[in-house]
Amino acid sequence: MVANRDDSDKGDSPPEDSLREQLRALVDGLREDVQALREEVQALRRKESPEGPDALLPREEAAETLGISVRTLDDLAEAGEIQPVRIRGRVLYAPDTLEAFVRRKAGEGR
Q1: pTM, full prediction
Q2: Which of 62, 75, 92, 109 is the most buried (most CB within 10 A)?
């Protein structure tokens, strides 16, 4: 005789739900930990960033520093609102340039 599928699933449901909840909580905790680590790494990069050419940030890091997308950063550069440094095909940004851009934009809001 074949067991009714609905009857066999009823006994498995509560432990499965509990396991799903535990996995969701674990994944959420891991996401929070990863975000905290990202923020820590960013803070260390800012704190320990060297002077000179090594201090230049690639587009991705510059956009992340400003809290915008890379596409928006590219649009700002194309419009002449922020000046990148181009070296052998690489597009980089000086931290001072990013800070000046933020100060300028903050002043426009007044």
Answers
A1: 0.52
A2: 62
Q: Report the DSSP beta bridge partners of residue 58.
A: 92
In degrees to the nearest 10, what's the CA dihedral of 56, 60, 63, 64? -100
Residue range(s) defining the domain that contains residue 14: 10-48
- Whether 27 is in a domain gets the answer yes
The Cβ of residue 93 has, within 10 Å, a number of other Cβ atoms equal to 24
Please identify every stretch of the chain with a pLDDT value under 70, giving residue numbers as ranges. Answer: 1-12, 43-54, 109-110
Q: In the structure encoding, which two tokens stand for residue 70, read together?
A: 């890379």
Report the number of distinct structural domains present in the chain.
2
Query: Based on the number of CB atoms within 10 Å of its own CB, is 70 exposed (0-12), middle (13-18) or buried (19 or more)?
Result: middle
Long-range contact pairs involving 101-107 (C-beta distance under 8 Å, separation at least 24) = 101/66, 101/76, 102/66
Q: Please give the Cα distance from 89 to 91 (Å, whole number).
A: 7
